[in-house]
Structures are given as structure tokens and as C-alpha cells.
Amino acid sequence: MSTQAIGIFDSGIGGTSIFKEIHAVLPHENTIYLADSKNAPYGIKSQDEIIALSIKNTEFLLEQNCKLIVVACNTATTNAISHLRNTYDVPFIGIEPAIKPAALNTQSKAIGILATKGTLSSTLFHKTTDLYSNGIHVIEQVGKGIVELIEEGKTNSEAMKSLLSDYLKPMLKANIDYLVLGCTHYPYLMPQLLEMLPKHVKIIDSGLAVAKQTKAVLEQHSLLNTSMKMSNNMFYSNGNVTVLKTILENKFTVKGLDF
Ligand code: DGL
Predict the structure, then answer these.
(1) Which of 82, 72, 84 has its CA nearest to residue 214?
(2) CA 184 – ligand 1 centroid, Å
(3) Dihedral in degrees, nearest 10, Cα atoms 14, 239, 62, 232
(4) Ligand 1 atom, smallest distance to 73 CA
(5) Dihedral of CA 75/216/214/60: which sign?
(6) φ/ψ of residue 79, rounded to 5
(7) Is the pTM of this model over 0.85?
(8) Which domains are present in the chain?
(9) Dihedral, CA of residue 240, residue 196, residue 73 and residue 211, to nearest 10
(10) Which residues line ligand 1 (CB under 6 A)?
(11) For each of the chain's 259 residues, which pLDDT tens digit applies?
(12) Which of 183, 197, 243, 254 is catalytic?
């Protein structure tokens, strides 16, 4: 039993989509979320830069005495998690695009994956894709500019619609029946995507799987918070605090950080 917080970080506000899944599965767990929005997007940075930022974020969360770290960012996971696991003693949970369920269930034998350049060019992503994509057409699309718009609070904008329409075109042409959201910012695009995609296309992400894995790992390490008290969920951002508050529907405490 441990009342220490779960630490969660992302390049920005996207990882709050993962926080929401974790909070639903583990409502009594205290959490500390760090949005490194000042340095977003990570997806266009080099692997060395992503590793350096992931170290900085991890150390901030460890200074707050976190018992486990969730890397709520596909780009940081695919580029830096093995480095983090080799460096620190706490358990790490990462997030990777849900290629496996899409590849196993596709009927049209064509799946789309929307992710950052950093994720799509990583060795870890290719390893997973190669493992499951035999005989399946995988249309990989870099979501250039999407993270920036979400970080600016322009999720529901004409600029976003225009980017999405360009990015979905080759996927629709290939007759995909699964779209994998390979970035934790992208679940916030669900209303737009549902409007733009034919009804039979299933949109999947890894949020719930990450929350279940977090619970399993806490259990394994006897680190679950078994107290029935209301949890304390704290959010820090070194960027635009208002956008973070809005995405959290003003339900949680958000603090600005010079970081
Ligand atoms: N939320 C991050 C991810 O899952 C966005 C990366 C970025 O900042 O480019 O990949």
C-alpha cells in the first residue's frame, strides 16, 4: 500500500487523455501531471533531445516522490523509455500506438496510423509494426502541425480540419477500416474524426490499455493506494496554463511552472 503519487508526463497537454483513463480506473490514486508544453512538440526533435527532456521530466516527478512514472507520450516512449528504465529504479509505464489490435482485426487489410515523426521513425515502432503487419497495408501518416494547434487551444478550428482532411485522404483511398491514434494529443480530435471518417472505420488508441497496465504494475509491486480517501490530482505546466485548465474542464488544480 502506498499513498505516494503516480507521476505522469507528456510533451504537453495531450497526456491528460491518459490521465483521464488512469483516474477512471484508479480513482483513489494521487497523481502529479507534468506538461512540458514549453518544449512541445517533441515529435520533430532528435532522439537525444527527447531522451534529455524525458530525463528532466522524470527527475522532476521523482523529486515529488512519485512511486511510478507513466510516460504519457508515444514519442517519448518510443524514443526514451528503455533509457529511463535503465537509469531509474521506479517502474515506468509507456504508451505505444495500438497497431496490434488494428492489424489483428482489420477486414479490409488496410490500417491507418497517425502519429508524430518521432514515433513513426523510431526503432520500437518499427519493431512492433513488423511483428503484426504481415500482409497488411499500413498507411503511416505524420500528424505535422496537429500537436501545435492543440497546444494553442485550436483543436476545433478550420486549420485543424484542413490538416486532418489532408492526412486522412491517402488512408481513405486505401480503404482503411482502422485508424490508430498514435499520439496522446489525438483523442481530443475524436469529434472531428468521427465527422470526417465513414462510419465503418474504427478509431482506436491505447489509453485504456495504459490505465489497466498501470493498475497491474502497481499491484505487482504492492504499490496500490488502498485508502478510500478522495485522491489528490495535481497538474503542472511550463506553458499555457489556461489551455491545460480548459482541457481538464476546470476540474483540477493547475500550477504554472518555470521549468
Ligand atoms: N503527446 C505526444 C505523443 O504522444 C506528442 C508528441 C509531440 O510533442 O510531438 O506523441
Answers:
(1) 72
(2) 6
(3) -70
(4) 4
(5) negative
(6) -105, -25
(7) yes
(8) 6-95+207-256 (3.40.50.1860), 99-204 (3.40.50.1860)
(9) 110
(10) 10-12, 14-15, 40-43, 73-75, 116, 119, 147, 183-185
(11) 799 999 999 999 999 999 999 999 999 999 999 999 999 999 999 999 999 999 999 999 999 999 999 999 999 999 999 999 999 999 999 999 999 999 999 999 999 999 999 999 999 999 999 999 999 999 999 999 999 999 999 999 999 999 999 999 999 999 999 999 999 999 999 999 999 999 999 999 999 999 999 999 999 999 999 988 889 999 999 999 999 999 999 999 999 999 8
(12) 183
Minimum-distance ligand 1 atom for the alpha carbon of 45:
9
